[in-house]
Amino acid sequence: MLKLEKVSVHFGNEAALSEITLEFLSKKTTVLIGPSGCGKSTILRLLAGLQQLESGSIYFEESPLSPDNITALRHRMGYVIQEGGLFPHLTVKDNVGLMPVYLDWPPEKVNERLNELAELVHISTNLLERYPDELSGGQRQRVSIMRALMLNPDLLLLDEPLGALDPMIRFELQQDLKDIFDRLDKTVIMVTHDIAEAAYFADQIVLLRSGKLIQQGTLTELASSPIEPFVTNFIHAQREPLANLERMLS
Ligand code: ADP
Ligand code: MG
């Protein structure tokens, strides 16, 4: 359904992405992971048409993404940016209803979809009239996910959707989000910098470093057949603090 072929992007002389070739599995979850600045968000921005392609191609169901088809394709994608990106001056209802209203959905259809999604993401309908700053961080992310799902997209792009949440809320939302992915059966591309979160969500993990694709596979594959020492170091750098904690508790 979706693939990148030799995609490169530079900012000045710096390569943000170098010849990335990558196929995303249809109706599965791919997690992009790697150190800060490795190009994860740039990949999502390219797919959403917010970043211009410099060389290479992106195929969405066999058609190359281009300025001519990006708007139509964009309506088939839901995108949750880092920190959620809700408009502070709009209520939850208006944030979530923005695109359907723009597309002239009748109000009953908008309301029906709002209620359906509120139930799916566990947002009480009495929160729909509130403004984003009247919600907790977890509730705001649930609303961002509602907004991304509003047009029932085929593809969901999520940029560190749980990154800013404290651990307990994050754990709760991880479980709900996994349940949502399993129920909706969509192609999901999610960015995280947390290897445990990647393993929890991913059918496929894609590990990047400095704009290059280093290795892709399951966590077990990455751990058991690392293509270079960086893969092992990356996994262990993240697992070490947990191992220390377990030692302190035992
Ligand atoms: P990640 O999401 O993995 O942390 P990004 O994709 O945001 O990384 O960024 C990749 C690289 O491109 C980084 O070095 C970043 O500084 C650079 N970069 C991203 N966006 C811009 C921009 N608009 N202008 C200049 N440099 C950018
Ligand atoms: Mg990022």
Counting DSSP E segments of at least 2 residues, the number of strands comes to 10
Spatial shape = globular
CATH superfamily: P-loop containing nucleotide triphosphate hydrolases
Question: Share of helix among residues?
Answer: 40-55%
Total count of domains: 1
Largest sheet: 6 strands, mixed
Could you please describe the fold and organization of this structure?
With 250 residues, the chain is of the alpha/beta class. It has one domain (27-38, 66-249): 3-Layer(aba) Sandwich (Rossmann fold), CATH 3.40.50. It has nine helices and ten strands. It has helices at 40-47, 70-74, 92-102, 107-120, 137-149, 167-184, 195-201, 219-224, 229-249; strands at residues 2-11, 14-24, 29-33, 55-60, 63-64, 77-80, 155-159, 187-191, 204-209, 212-217. The strands form two sheets. The chain has a six-stranded mixed β-sheet with strand order 6-7-8-3-9-10, with helices on both faces. It has a four-stranded antiparallel β-sheet with strand order 2-1-4-5, covered by helices on one side. Strand 7, helix 6 (167-184) and strand 8 form a beta-alpha-beta unit. The longest helix is centred in the last third of the chain and has 21 residues, at 229-249. The chain is globular. The termini are far apart. The mean pLDDT is 92.
What tags apply to this protein structure?
single chain; 250 residues; alpha/beta; Rossmann fold; four-stranded antiparallel sheet; 9 helices; 24% strand; binds adenosine-5'-diphosphate; binds magnesium ion
